Amino acid sequence: MKVPSNKIVTVDVREDIRLGREPFDKIMAAVGQLEPGETLLLINSFEPLPLYRVMAQNGFTHLTERTADGAWKIYFRRGAGRTT
Description:
alpha+beta
């Protein structure tokens, strides 16, 4: 999946996780605001495996990347094949 940098909406939930807050509603609110062609970049402190299924049911594919500092970057986009 090629991700155009000018069409990325970033949601970083690491602070929510650190404070013990459930970030699901925050993530889904961002998904609901995506314009056609935009990509959601989720930054998390762990790989959110259950979220992949939820997003797939909503027509999203994902690309997952682990950064050098241990964070997880997951790009979600509507359509086109799944890549992990």
